[in-house]
Structures
1.
Amino acid sequence: MTDRLKGKRIMITGAAQGIGLAIARACAKEGASLFLVDLDAGLLETEAKALQATGATISYAIASITDTPAISAAVERAAAEIGPINALINNAGVNVFHEPLETSDAEWQRCFDINLKGAWNCSRAVLPGMIGQGGGVILNIASTHAFTIIPHTFPYPVAKHALLGMTKSLGIEYAPKGVRVNALAPGYVRTQKATEYWNSFPDPIAAEAETMKLHPGGRIATADEIALAALFMISDECPFMNATCLTIDGGLSVLHHPV
């Protein structure tokens, strides 16, 4: 522990597993106070208690990021329990992959409610407090889908492109108020979602091997590696980084892949 995040009161969504949990653990080690949000009550309570057992200051709420009143209430609770939020990590999201013409209205709505509206709900809830404190930082966990297109993944990249646009818009809008807004774009990460994706193929082992071959280094990221980048972006070590996106994909989006 180096106390790099001492004084940070961080709200993290989708914090019960995967990238969100890895970020929570990394931030706790660096002295941050955390307010964790997730829909999975059992997992969230288990992981929150595990972090508390390490001596970290942890509070949490079981809430959907698509529920505007619930998120507003969660932010008020956070202020009462750990202090006013001065850093937000919008991590919660869901893969919604379809052929465009086979995408139902319900699936379109679900994709945008969770991957875009949810991030806006949380940002809107914390921004007044950040402005009142003289500043803060918001980090949106985007994806390489925010600037590249993989066939058969519609409408997920549409929502992630929009999330990147929101990042830039809010970053410019609130820079005069001392609020930085950035995005982090992971590529493939070894999480439960990745495993579920490989398991959707007839031969999961072969599907995983094909994924590895896409990457210059022959492997994909761990959630802990993404967490290290997130930690840096919400720290005071990059005070002039604003309205931009940092890509963590091992070079995947740079390497040309013949169609």
2.
Amino acid sequence: MTPFAPYIEYARKAFAREATYRIELIAEIGSLVLRVYLLRSLWTALYAHNAAPIGLPLHSMITYTTVALLMSLVLEVDGTRVIREKLREGGIAVDLMKPIVVPFAYFSDGIGQTLVHAAAIVPSLLFALLLVRIDVPSPPVVAIFFCSFALGYGVNFFVNFLMNGVAFWTLETFGLQLIVRWISDLLSGQILPLSFFPGWFGRAVFALPFAAIYSTPLLLYVGIIPPSRWAAALAVQAAWLAATAGASYLLWRAASRRVVVQGG
């Protein structure tokens, strides 16, 4: 048995578990297509009244919005919420006794869930294309977009890990989750480009880790970040990935000691 076999099994079981909720997945696709239509109508009206982000023509804005919604099918999957559930049920102690790296097991579980939702991107895109026209960039841009998306996925996982890890001290993170989700949706570039924010506030939100989740991949996709700045953009994402991973490691060490002490 390879060292990765347990984590592959975690991902496989999560995929099978998530795939049983077919009606929910179909509803998610329908909801996404409806949001594509509504956002196309909204931005068309805003552009007609000259209320638009600088440097983005209407067709690029519609592309940005549609790709952001497709990304959300994957990025809104939170595999770390199992931490909160296991703490309430007491199963976290059992996980800590297993010969596995527990956070990596939760990551693998999230990967399994993600693969199911990623499969929904294809039908969602096909339905969305009936409503909007999406720009398709050159192969190098597509490649850099997927590299950036992978980094953003990692940052998103660790942000969720930190958020749910607080449950070791509070046992409940629902209120915190709502706050962080609202802030993330607004300041990550998912709802509207961060270039929409003026002055010092715009510069501040670009410096937050949330921008590494949605904004950077999307701005690469629509060409706002030119090739000369690709390396710098990915470096910032990699730095946030390292920072959030390091913070998650420290939190997990402290949380593990807390469980051992409380359990005797």
3.
Amino acid sequence: MSFDAPNYGKSVIVSAPSGAGKTTLVRCLMEAIPALAFSISGCSRDPRANETHGKDYYFLGLEGFKQAIQNDAFIEWEEVYQDHYYGTLKSEVNRLWDEGKVVIFDVDVVGGLNLKSLFKDRSLALFIEPPSISVLKERLTSRETESADRIALRIEKAGWELAQSSHFDVRILNEDLPTAVSEAIDRVTTFLAL
């Protein structure tokens, strides 16, 4: 994995199993810390009812995503589930750093590990932990955005993802959202002051 950026800026990487609350935490961090700017990922899937192209994701479609891989458009990418690709676009990260922002990533666990290995001490990697697998399943089910089969796949994957938490700089338990948000803000603020 390589990324030709003449001068890496700082970044904050937020990862978690699906349903642990990483997107909510990222939104709270961005409200509290104006220096942060969200890196919009590319994906191959269709948008959900509440999602907007260019705001939540760049919805590239399967063929469009594969073409972007061939064009070396990604810092990192992964086939998370069969024909469901997600990736971090080089152009997006460079655009935000050119604006003088600290890039914040909302990525799955493999993406978080890949970004941390690339950006090293110029990044802070946060792992958001759910209180339990049963709470995770309850959160995914209450979203009402995915089939029971898709939820079962996410829960199956969550066990492996939770085992990767020790590879992140900080682990934050998201049992009580205000407490988790407060801890995340403290950790990011400290990192940015270094």
